[in-house]
Amino acid sequence: MKRKLVTIPLSVLLVSSFALAACGDKETPASSSAATETTAAATPKPTDNTPTPITIMAPLNTAQTPPDTIIKELEKLTNTKLTYQFFPADTYEEKLNTTFATGALPQATYLKNQATFIQMKSAIRDGQFWEIGPLLKDFPNLSKLKSTTNDNTKVDGKLYTLYRGVDIARQGLIYRKDWADKLGLKAPTNLDELLAMAKAFTENDPDGNGKKDTIGLTDRNDLIYGAFKTIAAWEGTPNNWGEKDGKLQPEFMFPQYVTTMDYFKKMRDGGYMNKDFAATSKTDQQKLFTSGTAGMYIGAMTDVPTLNKDLVKNVPTAVVDVHSMVAGPDGKFAAWALPGFANVVLFPKSAIKTEADLRKVLAFFDKMMTPEVANMANWGIKDVNYSVTDNKAKKLDDEKWTREVKPFTDLAIGDEDTSGRYLGIPSIPAQGKADELKIANLKFAVQDPTAALDSKTNLEKGVQLQAVIVDATNKYIYGTIDKAGFDKAIEDWKSRGGSKIMEEYNAQYKK
């Protein structure tokens, strides 16, 4: 079967139904068993009691690959011989692209996010991955996966993936409460107050060292998971696509999108954020916060325990807090919503030759959704990595947990309620508040109306076309083009296939 090369640019990350991609960095594959690549010994043809050999390729979101500790426990619990191929998340799309093109994908292949999933749809349609939907009924735990989320990952009405669940509305503000208290500021209730906080954190010496060495907001080269999309939602911008005059139109054709660009331009021109945000990686963005330079981080509020841990190493007196209810110009709250999954895993036919072999791999993932195995993958070894109080888990050592367990947590299948794994005890008050706010945000969650729709033109040209908009958005904020220049970029998007995407989405939307 001819294998098509899946081109996933590293400069764009857009969780939309029309195009997405992400940025990259230096690659270091995992080594022996988890530290590079776990090498499975040659095994005889499996019998009923012989461990099933399974190779898994996945992105690594930690600085180092994990030791074998959790792998060995998972193997015991699932009767498998596991080979994990971990590659750094920053360059994962590039590695995925290369591995796919050479026909070397393993039995279980994780993507990175909704972006890479959308780009893989053409290969799914080419029949290069197994359809698993009809088989899930035979697995008691996989059959518990949420039907609404499954629907959002179907391709032409067929299910090829298992999903990793995600908090639907987790976006908000993480900020230096000690700075705010010193300057007499409260959590911002609207966008004007948010801008005022950024300005004060920049100009009013919040760290008290007598130097002008702080900024308000730290941001990165990501118009989705960075600050832009969250603030755009607060401005009233729809989530990727919205309805206007009875038809679906992309978010950048709404006036609120322009208002958001104006807001960021004002913040950047004033020096209230890192001026080179469009060239800033997530790692460097977070370092600006954890080093004590920036006082505001807008993104997933669930990042607060990690940011706090690294911050207090550099600034022991620092105090962080979280906030999400920032009203827009109309006085209303809004939070853009994810489609229920953060990542998916696919099963290549090049690595799994028969349905019988596929069932063995699915049986492993079915066991991964039992409470015992799910807790091992999410929390580690009891009384070594975590303890249990009132049926909730608490990490015993954050750094040890991050090193040994987090890579497997990022590969969890399903959700907390579908797998029965423990909920966590917050390590700091701000984490508990973040847990409450991500639930409160659900009342104001704005869904993407195209989440379950498909556009052939989008699959073929969406990434390249979205790069036009991302580039124009950054240029507008940087001041190198004006509104007329941005409008010209929209016309360019339309003429190169965008109008066709709109036509195809609206044809499905009306059904």
Question: Would you write up a description of this structure?
Answer:
The chain is α/β, with parallel strands linked by helices. It folds into three domains: 32-167 and 340-421, D-Maltodextrin-Binding Protein, domain 2, CATH 3.40.190.10; 171-336, Periplasmic binding protein-like II (D-Maltodextrin-Binding Protein, domain 2); 456-509. It contains 18 helices and 16 strands. α1 (69-78) links the parallel β1 (52-60) and β2. The radius of gyration is 23 Å and the shape is globular. The protein starts with 51 loop residues before the first strand and ends with a helix. Mean pLDDT is 90; it is low at 1-44.
Key phrases:
511 residues; alpha/beta; D-Maltodextrin-Binding Protein, domain 2; four-stranded mixed beta sheet; Bact_solute-bd_prot1; signal
Concise overview:
The chain is an alpha/beta fold and 511 residues long. 40% of the residues lie in helices and 14% in strands. It has a five-stranded mixed sheet. Strands 6-9-5-10 form a four-stranded mixed sheet.
What fraction of the residues are assigned to beta strands by DSSP? 5-15%
The poorly predicted ranges are 1-44
How many E strands? 16
Order of strands in the sheet with most strands = 2-1-3-12-4
Q: Rounded to an integer, what's the Rg over CA atoms?
A: 23 Å
Q: What integer is the average pLDDT? A: 90
Helix content: 25-40%
Shape: globular
| Spatial gap, N to C terminus | 34 Å
Biggest beta-sheet profile: 5 strands, mixed
Stated plainly, the CATH topology of the largest domain is called: D-Maltodextrin-Binding Protein, domain 2
The CATH superfamily of the largest domain appears as: Periplasmic binding protein-like II
Number of domains: 3
Structural class: alpha/beta
At the first level of CATH, the class of the largest domain is Alpha Beta
| DSSP helical segment count | 18
The CATH architecture term of the largest domain is: 3-Layer(aba) Sandwich
